[in-house]
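Issue 218. Parser rejects a valid record. Input:
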Amino acid sequence: MDCRLAATIIGAGLSLVMGSVQAQDAKMAEAKAKEAGCLGCHAVGTKKVGPAFREVAKKYPKQGDKIVAALKADKDHADAIRDVKSDDLKLIADWIASL
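Output the parser choked on:
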């Protein structure tokens, strides 16, 4: 088999696997956001009580760490997230920042 063809096949396979992993992470993050109560005030694409997650992502593109910092700095959010595990909060924030 030609090396370029083999590399293309391997690359395509890795892309599929990575896409599947990212989709699983997104589903897990959304479930964690629901569990944490985030979806009571926020939705992915529409404003509810708070802004849509896509609007938050525009403000903090690919910056989940800044979303976590903003949540912790805001009294209402700090109270709401005090019982959320750090790993779960990071997963949720990274998911929001990726939208």
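Fixed in the parser; the record now loads. The two ends are 39 Å apart (CA to CA).
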